[in-house]
Amino acid sequence: MPEEKKLLAKTLINRIESADHLNLVHNTMIPVTKSFLPPIQEYDAFLARIWSNEWLTNRGELVKELEDKLKSYLNVSNILITNNGTIPLQIALKLLGGGGEIITTPFSYVATTAAIVWEHCTPVFVDIHPDYLTIDETKIEAAITSKTTCILATHVFGNPCHIEAIEAIANKHGLKVIYDAAHCFGVTYKRKSIFEYGDISTCSFHATKLFHTGEGGAIFCRDQALRHAIYYSHNFGHNGPLDFFGLGINGKISELQAAMGLAVLPHMEEILEGRKQVVGYYDQHLDFTDVKKLSIRDGATWNYSYYPVLFPSEEILLNVLERLNKADIFPRRYFYPSLNTIEYTHGMEMPVSEETSKRILCLPLFKGLEEKNLFTISNIISSWN
Ligand SMILES: *Cc1c(COP(=O)(O)O)cnc(C)c1O
Fold first, then answer.
1. What pLDDT, in 10s, does the model give residues 53-62?
2. Whole-structure pTM value
3. How many helices (H) and strands (E) would you count in the chain?
4. 296: CA distance to ligand 1 center in Å?
5. Could you tell me the distance, in angstroms and rounded to a whole number, from the CA of residue 53 to the centre of ligand 1?
6. Which domains does the chain show, CATH number per domain?
7. 32, 220, 329, 379: which has the fewest Cβ within 10 Å?
8. 289: exposed, middle or buried (C-beta count within 10 Å: 0-12, 13-18, 19+)?
9. What is the Å distance from ligand 1's center to 147 Cα?
């Protein structure tokens, strides 16, 4: 196999690894992230309740308990938890998108854009800010047309968008704001949970995310009428067994997933502390002369969710990546490619996002990443030239 194909094969394994690392990753391999697994007895105790209740899904006791606990942990006015972090985007776009044009970021996970197209809306990309990597608020107004219905922006890597500017633009033009806050578990902005901003805000509890339920997610909305529509939308539209409020889909999370969430949640402090240490190590030991790190927006408390670094060129990135891979270290090219270049999005040019996507690498970051590995990673990155 040519070297490039081998690299690709390894990257593919790396992609799958995040959801299934126990089966695929051998001991010495350092993946970009590792799912936190709670002590199995603690998970078992929640499973025992499921067995005794003989209740597996449809908003059982554990789902409601997890919602209550998350509501107070996150300090949010409301939360509805769901079976993943993509269905909340689809529900939000179904309810607010009206099949129109959605102003969105090209620098996010593909789910952000795919949800727009899936809901028969049209993504209209606006380029990103080169330091914050969130949508460039100064370029939004030029992209608004009579067909625009929403702004769907991602707080990428847990870094808030320019929320005030986006809100002002939305108010001026009568648009709705949806935030893909998949990376934002625990992030606050101006002393409020980040999930309290926008008409609808969404989160992912996927195994690779900071807090997880294996698969899972959440949707946040402060408007009561809209919240009601979200609620019935995620449960087939039901109003009782024989009656319907309207159209719906299945966005329900099961008791089995809630059990994982209930077992993980009490460990958040140690998860965050472990990640903070890794971030601290990188901050101290990487050479930032030519390699750039993410700028976190003022007013935000960040959650140590990702450690992206920007190299001077894609060539240098690929070179460093190869050396890291040879040392059995597998960072991820989050997010590559820029979403405006995907075949179903009609290729608008987004120079900052395209350039960023080619040069950005997310370094391994998880609780328990050992110092000897951090040393190797930092050395390889800091000695690219
Ligand atoms: C993970 C992620 C999603 C999708 O969440 P799932 O729970 O995997 O469906 C959406 N948007 C962003 C930015 C993500 O990182």
1. 999 999 999 9
2. 0.92
3. 12, 15
4. 20
5. 31
6. 3-35+267-382 (3.90.1150.10), 40-265 (3.40.640.10)
7. 379
8. exposed
9. 26
